[in-house]
Each structure stands twice: as structure tokens, then as C-alpha cells.
Protein 1
Amino acid sequence: MSKPFVVGIDIGGTNTVFGIVDARGVVIASSSIKTAKHNNITDYIDELHTELTKLITENNAVDKIHGIGIGAPNANYFTGTIVDGVNLPWPTPIPLAQLVSEKFGIPVAITNDANAAAIGEMTYGAARGIRDFIMITLGTGVGSGIVINGNLVYGHDGFAGELGHVIMKRNNGRLCGCGRTGCLEAYCSATGVARTAREFLEIRNEPSLLRNIPVDEITSKDVYDAATAGDKLAKDVFDYTGDILGQALADFTTFSAPEAFILFGGLAKSGDLLMKPLRNSMEKNMLPIWKGKVKILLSELKEADAAVLGASALGWEAKTAEMTIVPPASASAVN
Amino acid sequence: MSKPFVVGIDIGGTNTVFGIVDARGVVIASSSIKTAKHNNITDYIDELHTELTKLITENNAVDKIHGIGIGAPNANYFTGTIVDGVNLPWPTPIPLAQLVSEKFGIPVAITNDANAAAIGEMTYGAARGIRDFIMITLGTGVGSGIVINGNLVYGHDGFAGELGHVIMKRNNGRLCGCGRTGCLEAYCSATGVARTAREFLEIRNEPSLLRNIPVDEITSKDVYDAATAGDKLAKDVFDYTGDILGQALADFTTFSAPEAFILFGGLAKSGDLLMKPLRNSMEKNMLPIWKGKVKILLSELKEADAAVLGASALGWEAKTAEMTIVPPASASAVN
């Protein structure tokens, strides 16, 4: 009998959100635990098991879970491990797929959060029916999930799709969390927008609503609010951000000629403030053969459910534990 | 009975080279005609048919040709047409696959020259057994063919893999043949190397062997010869070229995490003059997770046979004319 549900788990630095999802992408039930509560990964997985089992039992889903999909930072699909887990409290590498699959007795597949979002969008969202697209997640960082001919691109080692770390400024670029300078992420993430605002406030003399906020506390939300209220400097920050992102999307098009880019995350909800300069810049910088031919779409996943839905979509692909955690020969060189 | 041979045709601006190839990649026989001799595409195909039929007959290959593969500038795999055929004497679009397949009664597949090179390398050359690699052709221009999980990337419209047109200089970049400025191709092609030499000669005062050559006549071969003879300025030209190409390869890695880049074309034969600065720059600019993990290999296809071999490998994929020339729905928007 084929099992009608999957479980999606989204592991963030603060919260771990999980839910039971049916084949049509309806989140039947969801809950969460604190990610950082346990210093020991075993304790964390014990609590996850307790809470998730409760949810499964309450919803009459025992023995009806096809697979578990997990989206987590720096999670590798091939090896089932988290490497260099930036904001997570446990030592890396973490053999997460193996640990969860052993605990639950259910097949587990893991990937990074942006890839999970791309799979979710392809399965349930704006990318249904689109076989070539690039998901760009504009959050604290800039992530990406690349789909070519209907397949997510993992690369030879499982780490493909790090487009937030393409260099956009080769001279005097901003320091990025990766240790290099000039990365797309340093400009077009939520933190990048706040950095741009701080830079503009420092080098310009004009008045701005943002000058009412202590400069170190300015967030991208503050910039959005000020721009919506008509603040010129704040609007210029969005123009600057859209311009750089448009240059990047034009370059990315030369790689896989996607039918569409799909934007996801807080900044993607900035409306015309971001979309207008973004579309203008992408078209201006596009190689002639693609001018006017590549769409920019917004995610259609409901914000509250998106992370769980994205991860859960991967649950349909989850194989037996053995297949999930044994790395292919070409990936073994990574760790 | 399965047919033991394929035909490869490489259409260049000057010559059209064609050959009969067996399943092991041996060029049984080859010949060529002048591409630009005929102003009319029908006359050109007539001569190609006459000469190729002669070659097939002489080599007892009548009724033994599985398919014909053609590599040509701006050739689209999905539609079977050449669009904006830069150096070709005929009006575009040219429905090349249809014309050739009707004339010969043999299935035809076409793609651009860099994609053909990638398929050739995967079938017969340095990429045998490598499922994720990027072919970079360093010739008059810079071309690319991207292979992900064993499949060539065509994109939603058949034009993917134009990495020569990724922007490497966003300010004061050189004018590129595509009409934009700062493209990789404007720096790291053979013509780019000659341009760099001319720039260095103009802005520097030091002596150089290259000053013995009329400045407008300097070629990349001249720069290579001078560098090999120990000329400092000429060596600096290769350092500059390798540095930019290394930055580009580091960026490309974030996309598809290839196991290897494979270099092809005249410049790729510059030895350590190019490879040393290239490897240094790629490693220096690489995102930490890929440092020391991505190979740079040289093409293993014999120079004389490479273009024909690459195109011929596509011949094994050629389907009946109908399948080759009818564009999929998503590609119809292109023309």
C-alpha cells in the first residue's frame, strides 16, 4: 500500500518546524521545537522524535509516512550530512539523514534550504510545469536552487547552487560571511540591504526617515517602511539592490537559460520597490538572445508553510536509509 | 541491424569539415569544403551532399550511417536552426537540421560548436566517466558546453551555456562582439589576449619583443612566442588572462559544482604560461568548500579531428527528422 503522507522538517538556527503533508501539498498539521535547546545532537533528535511522533499519532498518520524530507543549512543530499553547520549548536559533520532515519525507521532525504524551496516550488508552487528555473532565496543570506530539465542540480559533490557567492564587485567589495569579498549575498540579502542603507546614510547628507533609527539597528524592514513612506534615500537603496540582483540574474541566464527565476523570502515581498529596478537591470544587462524572454516570478508557497512544504516535497524522493546515506564515489572526496 | 557509423560535420566561417566516425571514435575518413563559396544555402548543401556521398561510398558506408551530427555557430538543438549565424554567408534563421536530413535521408542533430566539443569530450576524450564538467573553448571567442549528471545543458530554449558572455568587468569593460561590455570573451579569447597585449604596450614603457610587430597585427600566437622567449610583458599578458579566467571558473563552480573544467582550443595549449596563473587564481577565488577540489583538465581530442569528433558524437543521439526539427512548446517563443 502506498503511503499517503510525507513529513517536512525545516531546521533553522532558532526553530525547527515540522509538519505532515499530503500529496496535494496540504499541511495537515505542524509544530516546532527550539533548535538550540540541546547542546547534544542525540538529545535534539530525541525531542524531535517525541514531538513528531505525537503529531503523527494525533493525526492518525502512524505507518502512513512515505518519507521524511529535511531542509537544513549546508545539508548535502548525496552524503546525508550537514557540513560546517553555520548557526547550529552541534559539531559538524552531522550524519543527519542516518540519525533521523534510524530513529524513525522511515526513509530520510536532506538538502539545503534553498534546494528544498526549489523542490517545493516545483511540486506545489509557482514552478509547477516549468522544467528549467532558478530559485533565488532572499533572506538573511542569498541562496539558490537550480532546476534543469526537471531535475535539481546537485553537482558532482552535492553542493551545487551557491549563487549567493558569485562575485558581483571585484574591487573594494564588501566582506561576506564566506570570508571572501564582493559576493552577491553581501548586497542582495536582507542584511545586505541594511548595509547599503548604512553606507548611503554615511556618505550622503540628505535627510532620511532612517536617520531616526540608531544606525546599527537598521533592518531591511526599516528600509522598506521608509521607502514605502516615500523616503528618497530608502528608495535608492532598493534601486541599488535591484540593479545588482538584475546584473546577477542576467549572468545566471547564460548558464542554464532558465524559463524563469523564482524569488522567495522576505525581500521578495518588497513589491515594485525591488521588482522594478530588478527587471530593468536584468533586461538592460541581458545577452540580446534572451532580452524579454526570461520571467521573474514570485514564490507561490504560503509563507507560514513554505519551509515545511519545501522540505516535505523531498520526502517523496526519500529512499531506504542505505541508499540515502551512502555517498557516491565522486562525493566521497568532499569530507 | 544497428548502423556502425556516424557522420560529424563542423561548420566554421571558412571551412566545413566532415568525417565518418565509428563507435570507438576513430575518424575513418574526412574531407572538407569551403563554407563561404556559395551565397545560397541550397547550393552549399548540394555540394556538401556530393562530397559527403563520395566519402561514404568510397568507404563502403552506404546505409551504415546511424545519424549526422553538426556543430555550427549559434545552432539550436531544439529547433534544428541556426540563428544569427555570425560568420556564415546565408540569411538566418537557417533550418539546417531539416535541410540536411531531407537531402541525405538520415537523422540529423545540430548544436553549437562548444556543446559539440563537450559531447565529443564526454564520448571520446578527457571527460569519459565524468558526469559533471564544464567545457570551456578558448578560440576566437570563448564558448562553453555544460554537462550536469551526464546530460548536456540546453536550457529551456536550447541556448544555454554562453559562459563567454558572463560579465567580468562591470566598470570600463571592453566592448564585446555581443554589443555589451566586460564579457569574459573580450579578455580570455585569442583575440582578447591580443587586445591585452596592445593595451599593455600602450600603457607601459618597458621594452618588449612585441614592439617589433605592427601593433594592429599582433596575435595571441605572437604573444605566446614572445612569452616563451622570456618576454616579461608577454608573460604578464598571460598572467592577466589566467587571473580573469580563474575568477570566472571559481564563479562557475558555484553554479553546478563540476568535477572538472576541460579546456579546449588554441589558448588551452599555452602550457604553464596560462595554466599556472589560471590555477592560482581559481583557487584563490574559490568558495572555501571547493578549494583544491575542482580539476582543470585539457582536452584529449586530437586537434585535427576534434571538431568532427565532437559533432559526430551528437550523431548517435540524432532522431528521425520529425523529432529533431519540431521545437518543443517552450522553445517556440525564441524565434
Protein 2
Amino acid sequence: MKKVGVAILGLGVVGGGTYKILTEHREEYKRTHKIDLVVENVLELRKERALALGVEESKIADNIAVICSNPEVDIVIEVMGGVEPAKTFVLAALNAGKSVVTSNKELYCKYSHELEKTAIKNHCGLFYEASCVGGVPVIRALLDNLQGNKILSLLGIINGTTNYILTKMSHEGASYAEVLKEAQKLGYAEADPTADVEGFDATYKLSILSSLAFHTKIPYTKIYREGITGITVKDIQYGKQMGYAIKLLAIGKNGDNGIEVRVHPAFIPVEHPLASVNDSYNAVYITGDSVEDVMLYGRGAGALPTGSAIVGDVIYCATHSNYRYSTFENTKDAAPGTKFIENFESAYYIRVNASNRTGVLAKITSIFSRCGINVAKMVQEDGSDSAAVPVIFVTHKTKEHSVNKAVEELKAIPEIAKVAAVIRVVS
Amino acid sequence: MKKVGVAILGLGVVGGGTYKILTEHREEYKRTHKIDLVVENVLELRKERALALGVEESKIADNIAVICSNPEVDIVIEVMGGVEPAKTFVLAALNAGKSVVTSNKELYCKYSHELEKTAIKNHCGLFYEASCVGGVPVIRALLDNLQGNKILSLLGIINGTTNYILTKMSHEGASYAEVLKEAQKLGYAEADPTADVEGFDATYKLSILSSLAFHTKIPYTKIYREGITGITVKDIQYGKQMGYAIKLLAIGKNGDNGIEVRVHPAFIPVEHPLASVNDSYNAVYITGDSVEDVMLYGRGAGALPTGSAIVGDVIYCATHSNYRYSTFENTKDAAPGTKFIENFESAYYIRVNASNRTGVLAKITSIFSRCGINVAKMVQEDGSDSAAVPVIFVTHKTKEHSVNKAVEELKAIPEIAKVAAVIRVVS
């Protein structure tokens, strides 16, 4: 029986889950995959954490050199997160001839060009299924199942924290601030929630997924990004009445005029399969020219679901020697000539607070008309003459820049107290 | 650039779609996968069909020997369906050293032990992603993503024809016979629909999927099977009122007491992600001990979606030389000692037509009680005293054999005109 040694860098939530899966299933993997997967080292400074998980003291390393020079280690699992020291450690492992399995979306997104070059040079595998959407097998689906398609679009709910927050706000009517606090208490959101709620985490994942889908490098810096901190319960409720659910969507499109990549909150029709992806569940909805629509759904985070993706990569790596790298020139920047569409098309939900006076509606609609925006729906709340009354417009598909222009003009009308919300509507 | 030659056996719906994908994307695959995928032969007796698709006359073969002896052919795509002559042709191709990609669920289900043995002997690849659930990447997910899990259960809507029929009956209130006729006209059902509507097709796929999921051979003959021909609009509507959708479910469970595999119509709660898988869409809902719940959703059939799965396998085969075979001893029969549970547990929907007379309810419930069945819900239609009035029971989880016994006893009561429906309820 082939013995395959692994080392785990970091015994945090995911590292701990991975350790548990590997050790508890060791006998099963001997039977099913004819390999003996042995955890030979863990890199963890909190020795007591490692001991509590059942790691033998002799296997606990406090520096990467121990692991790189251990001939028993074949595969290094990096689950530390963040760029440094993860990057230095992963490069060291690859240069020592170890294959690497990582869950680190930020590292892979920002430095895959460098990591991959090093992996190729050293004939090592570099696997990263766990970097996107936890246990949901989306990376391998793009690499090994849908690779014969031209992928036309990819719509994803790929951040668990924001989906948990938006679902709670939507179902319970609680405010963003309240739900965030609760999510932090439950461990669903970090003390500093910026990476999640401002959409950075989703842009890292979208960069990885859209590069694979479109066979060309999509740097995360090219992705339009807008977080969920401005979303109010009021708009969620208006949206509901109009048949929409609110989601932080990651969108990639590959059309005739170029590539469009963006992360922002969006209303989607309740009938769309993504609309019922709730709480910390995630999903990616992919449309290809042959496969038509495919949706992959599951737990986007968590110790064991993410551990499942890591162990899947480890077993694959241990039982295959042909590693596949990118299907495109994996450079830091986009390939010269790649066209990114910034002035993209979308429908829009626009809420203004306007004084309830005859004539204001005519002013607003004439602005829309001047900006080339067609209104699909309009709802005006009943209100007293003096107060600022919410008026909601849903537009037909229009250009982003036209909406930006219209919003500027709306702000200049004295009867409009506030342009209270602009939310894209995706169908 | 590596040139890889393929041959397509059969230019039916899926064969034609596959030919189209391969030829239209040829330049793209050179760029993305550094391979030149060339269709070197097609096996098709209807020469005009091949010519109409654009195949050069010199590439049209009328017997398998031409393809087996063509040194330019590396990979043979079998999309003929049925056992013979597909089986003979696939074995001939493998014995001639060609790798095989097949969409043939019946062939793979019934003879994978023989095909795989021949593939291993000849160091050839044998790929069958397209055999189950069209373009949905479920086989590779089980093999290469979720393989570190103990898969606990698998619930699938894996037959497009029956899902189309049940969705239409459910949404439009049309009868089974009417919808079947329409489906046949649209090409969604065959002239002889038996394989689909009686659940045979689903048992072939469940045999393949559950063998992979549970790492042990599950012959299709061990699968309990019940089709949809007895489902009435009346029961669908009662079910709807109770919050259920009707589906033909393929169920595999791997519990402490053994393995449970069955294909039958079932009510599932409308909130379940599978409940909104409609029309010819298919989905598989997998629960693993690490990954928790994962659902894979998409087109379960059709020329291009199935072609997408075939071409995915072809590209993988062309770019890898490590082929993986079964993770279990792939014999014809189940491994000795495998325990299959026949007296499985489920909740049940039972509709009887009873005379609306005092005392009949007491008789029924005492039968349930005697058989150890707990009733969860009861609905009795208002009706005249003399007529046979529908009375519906939904039970708590109980044993299949207890329900069979109760149904026999119910039939013997003179006040019961008919036990009109027994449908399992799955949650």
C-alpha cells in the first residue's frame, strides 16, 4: 500500500476540520483508494491546540523548514489564510518538491501566477478547490467537466457571511447592524468584517472562478466591487413586495464585447434558483454554450465542508501524477488586449424620497428619459403632502453610466430629499 | 501540439450534439488545452445523416473494425444506447487500445465490471460522466471531490421524462395519459416510454451513482423500483394542499444497518431544494459526513448538455494518462455480505375511498394502530353519506412492511371501496 504523508500548516477552524477528517477516515481511504494517508507534521505555534486535537507531540513543528526537510511529507496543506507568511511557506514547500493543497483564496487569487510557475518548475501539484465555495465542487467542475463549453456567465452567492446577514435581515426584518453583531457572536462574521461585508472575499473568489471559466486571467483588481453595508430592511421589504430576493452576487460574463466582472448586492426574482440559497449556503449558477444551466449548491464555509474539499484534493493528488495547471497564460495582469466592460447593462431598483407634490414625478421621469432609461415599474407610497415620500422605480435594462448620470441629476432636484437606494436587478 | 483523434459511435441526438461541440470548439481547445481534437471517424449506417452534419464521406464508417484498426483514433465515444451492439463495440475498442467515453447508462450499469476489467488490462481510460444526469457533473464530484466523505445519502431527480410529466401534471392539472402523449410529440418521451416511466432508467443511474458514493457494488437488480404510471392529478393536488411536491426520486442511503436503494414516486416538502427542480431539469442532493449537503442541478438530458459531459471526459482523457477505476471490487454482483435493507422506513401518504359512515374511521385507525403505524395527519373530504369519500392519512415514519400489511387489511373492510393511493413521503 502506497503511503502518502501530509503536513497541515495551521490548525485553525479549517485545519482542525481537515485533521479530523484525515485521521478519522484513514482506514476507509486504505480500502477505497489504496493509500495510507498519514499526517506527518502540523505547523502550529499553539502547541496545546495541536495536542488537544490528538496530534503527537513529535509531529508538531514550529517552523516551515522542519516540514520542507521531512522526507515523509509528500503533500503540504496550507490553511493559514492571508498572504504572508502563507506565501513564503507555500513557495518553500513547492521548492522542496512537495505538492500543495490550499484553501487560501486571497493568496491564490493574488499570487497564483507565481505559485503555479513554482509548482510547474518543481513538477508539483497545486490544488485549490477549497479556496472557493467550501465543499461545493465548482473548481473541478470548471476544470474537468465544463471545460468543453464556452462559459457565457457565472452567477454566484459565494460569501457565507453576507448571505447569512442578508437572509436574516430579509426573514426577520432586523437591521444590518443588529444582524452583524449576532453573526459576530455566532462566529459567522469576523471581529473586523470588512473583507466579507465589503465584498473583497467575493472578488478574490470571482477572480479565481472567472479566470477558470473564461480561460483568461481576470485579476481581482478588474472586478467592480460594492458591499452590503448600505442595504436597508426597508429596501429588502420593497423588493420582496416586487417579487425579489436580495443577495450579494458575484457576476462574471463573457460576451462578444468583452468580459464583465462585478460583485455587488442585487435583487433577483424569487423564482430564480439562486433566490432560495439562504443562510450560510452558497451556490454558483453557470451557463455554458453546451451545458446550458448548471447550479452547484452547498455549504460555502465551515471546518468540515471546507475540509471535505481539501481532502478531496489531497486524495486526488495522492493518486494522480498528471497535474493540470491553468488553461491560460497565468500572468499577474490580464492578457494584453483583454476587454473589460465597465459600463455594463443591468436593470435597476431606484428609491428616492420625494416631496409628494404634483409635478415631481414628471421631473423625475423626464430625467430618466433624458438619460435614455426606460422605467418598467413605479411604486409611490401614499403620504402627506409635506413629507418625503418613498418613490420606487425599477428600470428596464440600461447602462450603468446612464444610471449614475440620472442619479446625479435626481440629487439636484430640490423636491428630492434623498436618492435613498440604487440596487441592481439581475434576472 | 498534441493531436488526439476521436471516433463517434452513433450520430443520434447525443452523437450529433457531441460532433457539433467538438467541431465548433476545435480552435478553442487548441488554445485552452493545447490539444487538437479531431473527429477521425463516425460509425453511422445512415450515411445521409452523417453527411448532413458535415462529416467528410471518407470518415464515415459502417463497421467497428474500421475504427479499431484506425491508428489515428485514440478515443472512442459510444453514444448508441442499449446493451448490444454497444457492448461488443466498446470491448473491441478497448481491446484495440482505444480509451472509451460513453453516455450509455444501461450498458455501464449492467456491464461495468466487464468493461472496466478490459480497460485496465489494456491500460485504457473508461469514462462515463454522461451516463448519469446529462451535463450535471455528479460522477466526477463523487470520484474526485467528495471521495474523502462517507456519503450518507443521495437523493436524485435523475430522469428528465418523468420529471417533465410530473411537473406538467402538477402545474396544469392534466392527466398522466394526456401529458405523456404531449411529451411523446415533443420528443421528451419515447414511443415506448416504459424504460422512463416505469423507473428502469433511474435504477440504472442510481446503480452507478450509489456504487460510486458508497464504494461498493450496487447492482441495479437490488434497487426497489416503482414507476409513475399510477400517479393521479387528484393525489398531486391533495399533496400540494399539504405542502408537498411530487417527484420520481432515486434514493440511496448508507446507514449503520445496511444500504437502502430505491426508485419510486415520492412527496417532498415544497421547501426542499429538490422540490423546485422542474420540467426536464434534474438534480442530485448528496449528504456526506464532512461536506454536509451538496446539490448539483442542471439539464439531465439533451444533445448539447449530454454532449458537454462527453466532451469534458474526452478532454480529460486526452490530457491525462492516470485513469482512475472503481474504488471497490467491481464485480457483477454485490460483494458478499453487503446488507440491503428492504423493509425500509418512510412516512406515507395513504388515500382510501371510504363510505362516509360513523365508525369507519375507527376501523381504519385501529388497523393502523395494530400495524404499529402512527398517523401524523388526517384529512377527510366532506361528502354525502352514501358516496365513497376520499380520506387521506399521512403517517409518521414507519416500516414499509407495516404499511403493506395495513393496506391489505384496509382492502378487506367492506366500507372501503378502494385504497386509491400509497405514496411515500420523503423529507
